[in-house]
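From the methods appendix. Each design record in this collection lists the tokenized structure first, followed by the designed amino acid sequence. Records were kept in a plain field format so they could be parsed without special tools. The example shown here is representative of the layout used throughout.

RECORD:
FOLD TOKENS (285 positions):
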């Protein structure tokens, strides 16, 4: 089921056409990556879905219903680029505040706050002011505040900006769990490797339009980039590349495109060794 549908979204700010007819869907239990350069319209699209930007044309449907800009969106959770936390409140107080804003109260609110603190690994820091937290801890709490009401659609606007690798993996574990619970997740990012590793479907935006959409293999084939790139790192620079390989950088790296890694990589390595080179590392992309 498509729990999020964006149909023909258009928005202009003065002379800038931020959205130029964007259509996008997200299904329950799916993570969709939204890629594009700065200024492509990704954040404007997220804000339009959240009701923070009024569309000039087009519509947004959540759970099959068209939503007007001022209409509440209980099915929606939004994780913005900027941290939305109160530094002088504790982790528990932040969760209670945002849970109340999302319509939770009483025993239901208390239960969800306990769940969130355990989920993000901050139960032992529940009564510590957020200003004393590390950047990764703040990010985890930031996400928990956005999903406390168990939304069916989660918008993640570059949620791992400035986060260390360990915290990034923790966050993606959280997102995978939300998807496993049936949420549709839309992730805006600049990082193709994140989209490749985490998302079933990728939509690429540029100048306010979706210019390509599909699974990674479909996009790669459409761009004429099918196959794999093999990179061989050498102990010493090569003056010339063996047949079938290209010499990169200072000669310490050789590169070749292959269609069948299992059938072709062994022959490539044999030619490298036959040329007298010692292989330090092998990478396949």
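DESIGN:
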């Amino acid at each position: 089921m498509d729990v999020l549908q964006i149909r023909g979204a258009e928005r202009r700010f003065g002379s800038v056409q931020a959205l130029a007819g964007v259509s996008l869907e997200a299904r329950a239990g799916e993570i969709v990556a939204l890629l594009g350069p700065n200024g492509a319209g990704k954040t404007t699209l997220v804000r339009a879905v959240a009701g923070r930007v009024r569309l000039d044309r087009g519509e947004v449907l959540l759970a099959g219903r068209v939503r007007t800009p001022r209409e509440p969106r209980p099915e929606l959770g939004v994780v913005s680029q900027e941290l939305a936390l109160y530094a002088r409140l504790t982790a528990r107080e932040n969760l209670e505040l945002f849970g109340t804003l999302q319509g939770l109260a009483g025993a239901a609110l208390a239960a969800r706050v306990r769940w969130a603190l355990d989920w993000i690994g901050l139960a032992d820091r529940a009564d510590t002011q957020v200003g004393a937290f590390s950047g990764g801890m703040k990010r985890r709490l930031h996400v928990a505040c956005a999903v406390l009401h168990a939304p069916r659609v989660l918008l993640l606007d570059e949620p791992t900006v400035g986060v260390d690798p360990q915290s990034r993996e923790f966050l993606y574990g959280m997102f995978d769990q939300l998807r496993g619970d049936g949420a549709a997740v839309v992730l805006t990012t600049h990082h193709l490797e994140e989209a490749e590793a985490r998302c079933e479907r990728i939509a690429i935006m540029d100048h306010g339009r979706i210019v390509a959409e599909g699974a990674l293999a479909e996009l790669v084939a459409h761009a004429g980039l099918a196959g794999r790139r093999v990179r061989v790192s050498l102990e010493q620079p090569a003056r010339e590349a063996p047949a079938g390989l290209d010499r990169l950088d200072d000669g310490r790296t050789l590169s070749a495109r292959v269609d069948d890694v299992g059938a072709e990589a062994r022959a490539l390595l044999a030619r490298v060794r036959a040329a007298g080179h010692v292989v330090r590392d092998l990478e396949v992309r």
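APPENDIX NOTE: Helices lie at 42-49, 91-101, 106-119, 135-147, 165-180, 192-198, 216-222, 261-274.
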